[in-house]
Amino acid sequence: MAEHHDTTPAELGAPMDYAEHEKTYNLFLSLSKWGFVSCIALVVAMAFGFFAGGFFSALVLFFVICGAAWFLL
């Protein structure tokens, strides 16, 4: 059988699942942080690849920056 859920609006006092809210917010923060780090690493690696001239060296630099961020953050 289906579970019975309270269908009243939150404004009227419906119970809130704060643990799920915290979990979702922490996931959002984590994805935002790693998205920002990967974008910065990509831009730096692309600039390095353009000026130093090499796809492989830029790819290695991208992974080095992401790895360094993993340990530092």
Mean pLDDT over the full residue set: 88
Helical content class:
over 70%
| pLDDT < 50 stretches | none
Task: Output the helix-strand order.
Answer: HH
Task: Set down the secondary structure blueprint.
Blueprint: H1 18-52, H2 55-72
Helix pairs in contact: 1-2
Descriptive notes:
By secondary structure, this protein is mainly α. The protein is built from two helices and no strands. The chain has helices spanning 18-52, 55-72. Helix 1 (18-52) runs antiparallel to helix 2. The protein is rod-shaped and about 60 Å long.
Give the structure's gist in a few sentences:
The protein is mainly alpha-helical. 73% of the residues lie in helices and 0% in strands. The protein has 2 helices and no strands.
Q: What are the defining features of this structure?
A:
0% strand; 2 helices; rod-shaped; 73 residues; mainly alpha
